[in-house]
Amino acid sequence: MNKLDLLYDALTDKLWSQHFYNEQFLMIVNPIARNLFARLRDEESQHVLTLHRAIAAMEANPFPPSRILPGLNKNPRYRL
């Protein structure tokens, strides 16, 4: 499993947690508990945004040049 797969797994987990907290927020009547679930939901949404940014950054730059041209590190005449 590579880093991108791990980020997607974490994103899926965070989305499910956000969904759970939102469902609890809608069902609970106690204002203190509602506030807690709203804060937890909002915190998860921040995590989701962070993971989306990390995934987008990794997908935008999938391979460093040294992986495409393995001789790049060994032989300096192949400079980009």
From TrEMBL:
Highest taxon of the lineage: Bacteria
InterPro entries xref list: Ferritin-like_SF
SUPFAM superfamilies listed in its UniProt record: Ferritin-like
Protein name from the UniProt record: Rubrerythrin
The organism of origin for this protein: Desulfofundulus australicus DSM 11792
Source lineage: Bacteria, Bacillati, Bacillota, Clostridia, Eubacteriales
